[in-house]
């Protein structure tokens, strides 16, 4: 609970683990600057304090946020997630996205969607969707189109295998440059992968053994460093041969 | 109003997963990389108290507690104790578990484990009888499911067995004024007794797929959601079938059932050995813990470091300890006075013997058993020499140096420790005592 007096001192909190109650930035010396606060941060009078436990991140010049990894997902706008169809109603599909509430996918939210060609999804269909509206009082609204109205890879995923991980691992898999584990696996195996920010990952490949190998490798790579991930994949490949 | 999801539908499986698990099984592949007849990693831990165990089988996590109390026996079995199994499916283990009354699967799990223990007479009931027809011990096993990762029956069974193997009930005797009172002895005063367990019934669960063609052992939570049928065989390491449970699901051929039983007996032997190893480790550690309960007395005991002493030995200990203080001066003079003087002067130097004097006075013991064990053989050898030459003097300093016949000789202390040894100490303690006896005899002969 120490408040840091200068900007350079707040840099010392960046990329470090912070807990709720930490004051990471003192605003008294920064009268004319705008600071953008992301998830997990709050303005407390003259200081910025932390509300969620996690790592403090900065995106220059002035965006701060706290990154944490959970098993449950809190929906945010413009996130791409994997959902499972639970039910279909007259104008919405009810889709489970590992959030506190079920997501609503309008039946017309597909490219070229009209009342005549509403897709038929059976219960349990896996969908790759985008979060359009997210409010903690209402059910989040989803869509199978991007902003321009094109399909853009959204929609049902066929075959393959889906497994659940933490949101932190999903973010790591989606980072650019590509995550070392995915690159290393891609060098020797060919597979298809869809990653949802809600922690769901879908993998597809020609043979079931490849799918099982890729999914187990990804699940085990959560706490490994880049070098360790490469070594793990090398060992796996050697064992296969 | 926001649309909330129905509680029982909280965990969903996608169609893709379902199809994939089935197609992978058709090629003998399981989703977590195991072979069809491989068990997940079994991890058995124990708590501080007796009869408390925690078992992890892959992701499945179960805890078992065993408690006992004296009750009236059932009327049709006046000579037998009572064994009761209670299961608690905590809602944190699985979204489909609800708090309150146990559901069907909870009752089934309790019943399968109970049948395995009771019908096969694994736990000896007659040894739990105190007064026939009036008072018997009732053993209650509480199973708490912490995390449901699939195959709860096997994990809970191992947890129950581990807890029963390490549980100790208080000793109770019939006595008192009229010879009818039941006295329950405090476990700290009288060693509690373990339960008599004749054999270990291990349950092995199989899951069937594809109309009974494919079977796997130890299904995970996802595999259980996709399976067609399930069968649990409870077998002990001798190959005796204690119980079989197949409740509903796909029909299977009798040949498949026989094959499952054969596989189960192999797996049961493996799990039995793991369980016995874990219990052995725990028992040795518990025995060591019991011995270290009296650190102030420990400091005085020179001969055998890991035996607890009874009260009658305590008053001899100061003298015994003072012998060690006298040790460097043995042989230098024959009578007390100069010996005492030199001893006090070296005490001022801060010799190691000074610490013994401190401990004798009653301060915190700085004595460390292990380095001194090397020296004890020499000490005892010299002590026996002193015993023959020492003259008992009258004041308190002489008391410290004087040797008492019952406790001084090395052989004497060994016989004391033998008497101290309880019949139910573990193998390792007996070995330790024998080892020291040999060491002492050897050293006493050499120094003489």
TrEMBL record, chain A:
Pfam families listed in its UniProt record: KH_6 (PF15985), Rrp40_N (PF18311), RRP40_S1 (PF21262)
Keyword Phosphoprotein tagged: no
Main location: cytoplasm
Record keyword Nuclease present: no
Domain K Homology: from-to ranges: 160-208
Listed GO biological process terms: CUT catabolic process; exonucleolytic trimming to generate mature 3'-end of 5.8S rRNA from tricistronic rRNA transcript (SSU-rRNA, 5.8S rRNA, LSU-rRNA); nuclear polyadenylation-dependent rRNA catabolic process; poly(A)-dependent snoRNA 3'-end processing; TRAMP-dependent tRNA surveillance pathway; U4 snRNA 3'-end processing
GO cellular component term of the entry, any: cytoplasmic exosome (RNase complex)
Keyword tags: Cytoplasm, Exosome, Nucleus, RNA-binding, rRNA processing
Location in or out of the cell: Cytoplasm; Nucleus
One of the record's GO molecular function terms: RNA binding
Xref: InterPro entries: Exosome_RNA_bind1/RRP40/RRP4, KH_dom_type_1, RRP40_KH-I, Rrp40_N_euk, Rrp40_S1
Domain of life: Eukaryota
Exosome complex exonuclease Rrp40 N-terminal domain residues: 35-72
Coiled-coil zones: none
Name by which UniProt lists this protein: Ribosomal RNA-processing protein 40
UniProtKB/TrEMBL annotation, chain B:
Localization, UniProt: Cytoplasm; Nucleus
Recorded GO CC terms: cytoplasmic exosome (RNase complex); nuclear exosome (RNase complex)
Bias (Low complexity): 406-417
Principal location: cytoplasm
Domain (Exoribonuclease phosphorolytic): residue spans on this chain: 39-170, 199-265
Comp. bias regions, Polar residues: 343-355
Family membership noted in the UniProt record: Belongs to the RNase PH family.
Record's protein name: Protein ECERIFERUM 7
Record organism: Zingiber officinale
């Amino acid at each position: 609970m120490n408040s840091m007096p200068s900007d350079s001192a707040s840099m010392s909190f960046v990329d470090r683990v912070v807990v709720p109650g930490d004051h990471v930035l003192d605003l008294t010396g920064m009268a004319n600057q705008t600071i953008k606060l992301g998830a997990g941060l709050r303005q407390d009078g003259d200081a910025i304090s932390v509300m969620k436990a996690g790592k403090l991140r900065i995106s220059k010049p002035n965006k701060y946020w706290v990154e944490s990894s959970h098993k449950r997902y809190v929906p945010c706008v413009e996130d791409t997630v994997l959902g499972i169809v639970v039910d279909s109603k007259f104008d919405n599909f009810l889709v489970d996205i590992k959030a506190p509430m079920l997501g609503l996918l309008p039946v017309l939210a597909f490219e070229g969607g009209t009342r005549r060609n509403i897709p038929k999804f059976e219960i349990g269909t896996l969908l790759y969707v985008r979060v359009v509206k997210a409010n903690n009082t209402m059910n989040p609204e989803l869509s199978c189109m991007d902003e321009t109205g094109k399909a853009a890879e959204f929609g049902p995923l066929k075959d393959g295998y889906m497994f659940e991980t933490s949101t932190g691992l999903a973010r790591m898999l989606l980072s650019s440059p590509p995550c070392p584990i995915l690159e290393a696996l891609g060098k020797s195996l060919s597979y298809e992968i869809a990653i949802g920010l809600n922690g769901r990952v879908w993998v597809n490949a020609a043979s079931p053994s490849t799918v099982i190998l890729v999914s187990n490798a990804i699940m085990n790579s959560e706490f490994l460093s880049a070098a360790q991930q490469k070594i793990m994949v090398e060992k796996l490949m050697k064992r296969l041969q | 109003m926001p649309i909330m999801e129905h509680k029982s539908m909280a965990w969903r499986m996608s169609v893709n997963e379902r199809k994939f698990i089935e197609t992978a099984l058709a090629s003998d592949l399981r989703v977590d990389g195991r072979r069809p007849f491989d068990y997940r990693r079994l991890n058995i831990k124990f708590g501080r108290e007796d009869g408390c165990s925690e078992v992890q089988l892959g992701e499945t996590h179960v805890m078992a507690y065993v408690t006992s109390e004296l009750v009236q026996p059932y009327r049709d079995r006046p000579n037998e104790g009572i064994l009761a199994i209670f299961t608690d499916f905590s809602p944190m283990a699985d979204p489909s578990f609800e708090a309150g009354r146990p559901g069907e699967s909870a009752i089934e799990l309790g019943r399968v484990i109970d049948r395995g223990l009771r019908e096969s007479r694994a736990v000896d009931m007659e040894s739990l009888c105190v007064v026939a027809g009036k008072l018997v011990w009732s053993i209650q096993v509480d199973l708490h499911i912490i995390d449901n990762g699939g195959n709860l029956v096997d994990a809970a069974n191992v947890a129950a067995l581990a807890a029963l193997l390490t549980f100790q009930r208080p000793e109770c005797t019939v006595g008192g004024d009229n010879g009818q009172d039941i006295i329950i002895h405090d476990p700290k005063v009288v060693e509690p007794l373990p339960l008599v367990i004749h054999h270990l019934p291990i349950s092995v669960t199989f899951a069937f797929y594809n109309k009974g063609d494919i079977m796997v052992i130890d299904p995970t939570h996802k595999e259980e959601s996709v399976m067609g049928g399930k069968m649990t065989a409870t077998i002990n390491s001798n190959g005796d079938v204690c119980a079989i449970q197949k409740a509903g699901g796909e029909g299977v051929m009798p040949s498949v059932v026989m094959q499952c039983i054969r596989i189960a007996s192999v797996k049961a032997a493996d799990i039995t050995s793991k369980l016995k190893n874990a219990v052995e480790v725990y028992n040795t550690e518990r025995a060591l813990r019991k011995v270290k309960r009296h650190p102030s007395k420990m400091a005085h005991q020179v001969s055998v470091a890991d035996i607890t002493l009874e009260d009658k030995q305590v008053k001899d200990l100061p003298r015994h300890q003072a012998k060690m203080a006298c040790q460097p001066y043995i042989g230098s003079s024959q009578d007390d006075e100069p010996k005492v003087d030199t001893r006090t002067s070296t005490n001022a130097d801060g010799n190691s013997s000074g610490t013994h004097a401190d401990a004798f006075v009653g301060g915190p013991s700085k004595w460390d058993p292990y380095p001194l064990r090397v020296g004890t053989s020499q000490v005892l050898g010299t002590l026996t020499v002193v015993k023959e030459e020492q003259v008992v003097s009258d004041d308190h300093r002489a008391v410290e140096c004087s040797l008492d016949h019952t406790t001084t000789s090395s052989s004497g202390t060994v016989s004391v420790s033998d008497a101290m040894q309880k019949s139910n100490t573990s193998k390792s303690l007996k070995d330790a005592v024998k080892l020291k006896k040999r060491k002492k005899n050897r050293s006493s002969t050499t120094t003489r």
